[in-house]
Structures are given as C-alpha cells and as structure tokens.
Amino acid sequence: MRSRALAFACCVLAAAGCAGTGNGASGGAVGGSGTSSGDRLAPLVLPPSSIGAERALPIAAVFPTLGRYAVSGLQSLRGAQLAVEDLNRKGGVRGRPLRLAEYRTGSYFVDAREAAALASRDGALAIIGSNSSELSQAVAEEAEADGILQLTNVSTASDLTWDPQTGRVRPFVFRMCASDDVIGSLLAVFARDRLGARRVAVLYEVGRSYSAHLARSFRRGFEDAAAGRVVSESFYLALETDFRPQLQRIREFRPDVVFMPGSFPDATLAAVQAREAGLQATFLGGDAWSSPFLFQKGPPPGEAYYVELCSPAPEFDRKYAGAVGSDPPGCRAVLAYDAVRVIASGLQRLGPLSAEDLGPRLARTRRRLRDEVARGQVDGLTGRVRFDARGNRRQGVALYAVEWTPMGPRALVRGWLGEP
Fold first, then answer.
1. Angle, nearest 10°, between helix axes 2-19 and 70-89?
2. What percent of the chain has pLDDT over 70?
C-alpha cells in the first residue's frame, strides 16, 4: 500500500504541473484506516499541508487527479482555482481572501470520502466537488454527517441530494446542474413534442447508474399507450463495442428516435453500426455525449441531438483558454467556477467573521452558510443560480444539434429545455 500511495503522489504532482495549477498545496498521499490486508484499498488523498492562513476563508476542493476521472477532475479543479483567483483579485470576501484547499484524490469512492472527512476535520467552511456522482455520493455522506456544505458541479445522480436509505433530504448537499430525473424527463418532452416521436428505442448501459437512471426517467416521461407512444428497451454491458445485435432488433421495432443515454464513445460506435444495419432514426443523447470526438467515426443515420448541463459561457471560455492554454472542457470548469462564487456570495451575506466563528463556533458558521446558500440567488456565468428544497439547481439543460461539415461533425446550440 505504501508504494501505491507514493506512486499516486508522484503522478498527482506531475499532473498538477502539466495542468498549470499552482495554489501551493503540498503534502503527502495519505492512507486511511483501510490499509489492512485483503482486497480493501487505502484511500488515496493528497491533502494540503494546512488550510489555515492568516485571515483567509478556507474552501475545500475535492476532485480526482488520478485514475478514471482525472481529466475531468483537473478541469473542474482549474475552474474553482480561476474563481478564487478572480475573487481575491477583487478583494475577496469583506476584505478577506479565499483559500482554496485542494484535496486531490484517486477515482475511487473511498478516496473522495477520506478527502471530505479530512477537509471537515481541517476546518473548511464548505466543500466543492466532486465531478462524478459516485465520488460525490461519498462526499455527501461525510458532508451530511459533519454538517458541512457540499456543492458539486456536474454530478447528476438523482439521489445525491437525498438519502436513498431513508428518503430524507440531505440539507447540506447541493448541486449546480440538473439531475438525471430532470434531464430524462426534459428529453422525453423534446422527443414527444418537438420531434413528434411515437416510437422510441432506448439503448442503455446496464450496471451504470447514470445510464440506467436516464433511461428510466425518459421512459416514465414519454411512454403513454393510450396516446400511441411506446418504448422498446435494449441494453449493453460496460466496455461492449459490438451493438449490432441490439441495433438489428431496434431496426425491426421501427423507431422514430433512438435514445442512447451512454457515453460519447458508445454513441459514436453505435452510429456507424446503425448505418450499416440500415436503421433510419433520429439519435438522442444526454450530457455524456458532450465531446469533440462525438461521431468522429461517421454520422448517425439521421438527425442527432444531445443536451449539456449549462449554457455557453464565452467569457469563461476565453478566460480558461488564456489561463490553461487549451479549449474549455464543456461545463465542468465553468460550473465549478460558479460554485465557488455561490459559496463566496453566501459568505458575504454572513457578515464579518471572527476568529471564534472559524474556530469554536465553526459548526454554527457552517450551518449559517448552508442557510444562506439555500435561500440565496447568484447571477453566475452560467445564468442565475438558485436551489429548490432538495438542493437541486432550478434550471434545465442546453440543447445541441450535431451537424456535418466538410471538416466533420459540429455541435451547435439549438435552444434550452426546461427552466432557464
């Protein structure tokens, strides 16, 4: 376990250098109590050496920088960094600087859980993160137990902001984007009312919560036998690349629309195989289709649409490109940017904070901050941010259409679905 932790620390530090991040966080990869024998893995976390700084207001950022979610984790982290830099350049909060305490992790839920526990113990006022629903669920358990605000940027799992075991709302957990339930129902309305679909085939990845939840919420919002709207479901396994058997059955169903709530690599392969199978239908996807590599192997056999978790933010895109030297990564970074601004706005409304408010009275300060965020409204780069009673941002999703040019596929904004 020791060698694994050391390797993690080296990789994370290398990733930080490549990404151009530089908030000065240091420290070693730590292993939690799960270092015992067997198949249990020690949590992999690279915490800051300390989060205390004179007069600074500490906000923790819990994002993966190694493993499956590392690319999106670094993008999210950079968005949070840019927000703190901008706010501090303008004087911080009531003259006090913000301190982004970076807890860099692996891509396993035990890593995120350990990082959240450390951030709470170290005295953070709130937690930004994470960028995967699996990791955000682990953070949410710690945040709720410790009474510290969590605000995730792009985690869509519907049960994130409420406890699936008890059915109770998690009052300290918030999200900056629409949930799977909202996305699926909005896509169902789009297919029904805008595309005029009556027959929809759903092809989803079994065993992946994101895909299965979107499929379920879409079907619930679309299917109505009395109105002549029917749904046929097919599934595939993780890492499966041959969708031809499912697509042949879908072709026999003669759908108007094929809804594929999976990732962009899956949709890209399925598009080519659908054309080979002679399937004629409109392809429809969720936010996981958002990638410049979507349909690079060839177009689907008809029109194609997908949704994104935020509206375009040209101002931020220019800022990100200038700071990082690469194109902006969809919604991850800008929603992390706006998440920091939401917390800063809540801190502003708390009024001046004393040393006691950040020390002996920290639990009370965290509760007050949670209440301010819950009832506040902030005009962010992605529009107005306000939350419902479950901590979900009250907004819809951006609709994109994929068009083909001599240079290949191009995604263009076609409007907005749901509440602006």
1. 50
2. 90
Half-sphere exposure of 297 (CA within 13 A, CB side): 13
The 10s digit of each residue's pLDDT in 114-171 is: 999 999 999 999 999 998 999 999 999 999 999 999 999 999 999 999 988 888 999 9
Omega of the bond leading into 130 within 30 degrees of 0 (cis):
yes
Same domain, 165 and 210: no
Residues 404 and 372 in one domain: no
Instruction: Note whether 96 and 17 are same-domain residues.
Output: yes
The total number of structural domains that make up the chain: 2
- If asked whether residues 112 and 239 sit together in one domain, one would say no
401 and 377 share one domain: no
Judge whether residue 213 has pLDDT over 70.
yes
Q: pTM for the whole thing?
A: 0.88
β-strand pairing of 257-259 with 199-205:
parallel
Write the CB contacts of 59 (distance below 8 Å, at least 6 apart in sequence).
84, 98, 99, 100, 101, 124, 125, 126, 127, 128, 340, 343
CATH code at position 332: 3.40.50.2300
CB 243 within 8 A of CB 269: yes
Residues 196 and 138 in one domain: no
Q: Which tens digits make up the pLDDT trace of 244-297?
A: 999 999 999 999 999 999 999 999 999 999 999 999 999 999 999 998 899 999
Structure confidence at residue 328 (pLDDT): 73
Domain membership flag for residue 336 = yes
Write out the residue range of the structural domain in which residue 162 sits: 2-177+314-385
**Measured distance CA(127)–CA(135) in Å, rounded:** 13
Angstrom distance (rounded) from CA 403 to CA 294: 11
Do the beta carbons of residue 77 and residue 324 sit within 8 Å?
A: no
d(CA 336, CA 329): 12
What tens digit of pLDDT does each residue of 389-419 get? 999 999 999 999 999 888 889 999 999 999 8
